[in-house]
Amino acid sequence: MQVLTLLPWYDWLAVVWLFSAWAGYAWFARHWGVRRASLLATTNRYRRYWMLQATGRDPRVLDGIIIQSLSSSPSFFASATIIIMGGLLALLGTTDKAAEFVREIPFATRTTMVVFELKVLVLLGIFVNAFFRFTWSMRQYTFGALVLGSMPPPEDFAQNKFEREHFADRAGKLLGMAAETFNDGIRAYYFSFAAIAWFFSPLIFAVATALVVGVLYTREFHSEVLHALRD
Length: 231
Fold this sequence. Notes:
Helix content: over 70%
Radius of gyration: 22 Å
Order of helices and strands: HHHHHHHHH
Largest sheet: none
Low-confidence stretches: none
């Protein structure tokens, strides 16, 4: 109960708004993407087409190189997230100087040291979540590569010894899951920018959260890249 008294009600409201918007948009994007093709759903169809083509190739060196290239993105972000988390932990050791710097900003809300540390911990928690999503994406790409490597030669598919559609669906689904998990990590980065706005003002924090949701929605459902892929 003492923790609840650390922040004013409008700060708690802004925090609830952040995580509600985050979870709500993730649910919306997943379910609305079934009715109206999102960027992820559209690219998932291309992943299945890709794996269907891979069943007719031998050797599948090119496909393995592409999967390795795709897995390098979550690997890079996971490494970058570790550096950011280390910086935030270091910031907790010098919160007095950091809080003094924020107080000098004209429009920044003045807070106590404990509240400032709480804001840093919230930001740290967001990046911890991003780190777990990126590393899980890396593993899922590994599983996709295993399924690709286990594909029989094209001759066996041609002789109906194995079901081509089955292998393509399974490999494409695994790669789509890896891409979705990576997308979750990227969303955490987006919402971390909104959380940074909390250091200035709860109102700016709430507005930044709404802007992030708007940017995510535009890019996933109304971007030029989506139109190009659907056309």
